[in-house]
Specification:
This protein is α+β, with helices and mostly antiparallel strands. The protein is built from 10 helices and 13 strands. The chain has helices spanning 20-28, 75-93, 111-127, 176-185, 192-198, 204-209, 224-234, 250-255, 258-267, 283-292; strands spanning 38-40, 48-49, 55-64, 96-106, 131-139, 143-152, 167-171, 214-219, 238-242, 274-278, 297-304, 309-313, 316-318. The strands form 3 sheets. A 7-stranded mixed sheet has the order 8-10-7-11-9-12-13, sandwiched between helices. It has a 4-stranded mixed sheet with strand order 3-6-4-5. Strands 1-2 form a two-stranded antiparallel ribbon. Helix 2 packs parallel to helix 3 and helix 4 (176-185) crosses helix 5 (192-198). It is globular, with a radius of gyration of 21 Å. The chain binds adenosine-5'-diphosphate and magnesium ion. Adenosine-5'-diphosphate (ADP) is lined by residues 1, 24, 28, 42-45, 102, 104, 132, 134-137. Adenosine-5'-diphosphate is lined by residues 1, 24, 28, 42-45, 102, 104, 132, 134-137.
Length: 332
């Protein structure tokens, strides 16, 4: 902000119009008094936090209207998703999220929209005890950029580091969010699949719990096929997936034929599940942990020699269309 200058924070606007300061004060400034790790929050030139022991982990993701969500997406879902996609990145590293900043570009200041957006953002922030400590508010096309900061005491999970023979797992179910996007295009927002697209639940707790077991990890944002290939490439391997082992939700099975289920599970993005590997020497300990934990994880294949993603249906190699989403693919 460069046009206003204030000595009292939060400044109270003289006019009844919703100005930049009003937006920040009314919708994004919350009491963080209980958070002793926040030395300076919203209202100064920068936030100051106390990370404590361990290392700092940072990620940032931008959501653009019409690119990352349909233009008709409810404001509450945009607020939720903007934070969720970032939490998912920290989950994939096994980190604990703590603070977020929010850069918001809005075509106009609509109080109802902002209230819903903030409700979606803070509902999820509260689940993970994430505090909003700063941001920027500008006029422009609708675009939401959240930066997340977290901490990690020990080694992060990484995309690389696993090897041939490590088992490949995925959390939850895959394909639901992409299926949900189709429901949204039919204006069926209440459908459980549409809700999976609108309100993804990042696997923050699972990511932290996987640190003793996983040899590599990635979150699924662009589709299982694409993201598993990224993990495998970082490990210098290929990967083999058993189609019959893919975890598919009852809702997905109810709506689509088998080929379409596989297509959505492999190519559909936005699930924000974790895809990770377990080395043979950790398998027994991991199996024991799986039994006593309530976390939904499914073994779907393994890392193999080479660089390809091989799809198997039981013992048969099958050819299926697959490719993840690439923002610049059409430019090539
Ligand atoms: P500056 O001009 O120094 O960049 P601003 O006037 O833009 O600061 O912002 C004032 C304060 O409000 C800063 O602490 C900033 O981090 C915070 N802020 C601005 N926009 C947001 C937002 N959308 N969400 C949370 N905090 C925000
Ligand atoms: Mg400043």
């Amino acid at each position: 902000m460069s046009t206003a200058c204030s000595t009292n924070w939060p400044p109270r606007g003289a006019s009844s119009m919703l100005g930049e300061f009003d937006i920040i004060r009314r919708f994004f400034t919350r009491d963080v008094g209980a958070r002793h790790d926040i030395l300076v929050g919203i209202g100064d030139d920068a936030a100051v936090v106390e990370p404590g022991a361990g290392v700092l982990v940072a990620a940032v993701d931008a959501l653009v209207d019409g690119v990352h969500f349909p233009v008709s997406t409810p404001a509450r879902a945009i607020g939720h998703r903007a934070l969720a996609v970032n939490l998912s990145d920290l989950a994939a590293m096994g980190a604990t999220p703590r603070w977020a900043t929010l850069a918001l570009s809005l075509p106009h200041a609509d109080a109802n929209w902002l209230a819903d957006f903030a409700a979606g953002f803070f509902e999820l922030a509260d689940v993970h005890d994430v505090a909003l400590i700063g941001g920027d508010t500008v006029r422009g096309p609708l675009q939401v950029t959240v930066q997340i900061l977290g901490v990690l005491d020990g080694q992060p999970l990484r995309r690389g580091g696993a090897g041939v023979g490590h088992a490949v797992y995925v959390s939850g179910s895959v394909g639901d969010a992409a299926a949900g996007l189709r429901m949204l295009s039919r204006d069926n927002l209440a459908h459980p699949l549409a809700q999976r697209f609108l309100y993804p639940q990042p696997r923050v707790e699972l990511g932290q719990q996987l640190r003793p077991f996983a040899s590599a990890c990635i979150d699924i944002s662009d589709g299982l096929a694409c993201d598993l290939q990224r993990l495998a490439a970082a490990c210098g391997c290929g990967a083999r997936i058993q189609l019959e082992q893919l975890p598919l939700s009852a809702a997905l099975r109810a709506e689509f034929g088998v080929d379409e289920q596989h297509y959505l599970a492999l190519n559909g993005g936005d699930d924000y599940e974790l895809c990770f590997t377990v080395a043979p020497d950790k398998q027994q300990a991991f199996n024991a942990w799986c039994k006593q934990s309530a976390q939904p994880v499914t073994c779907i294949g393994s890392l193999v020699e080479g660089a390809a993603l091989v799809l198997m249906d039981h013992a048969e190699i099958v050819a299926r269309p697959w490719s993840g989403f690439d923002h610049f693919a059409e430019d090539e």
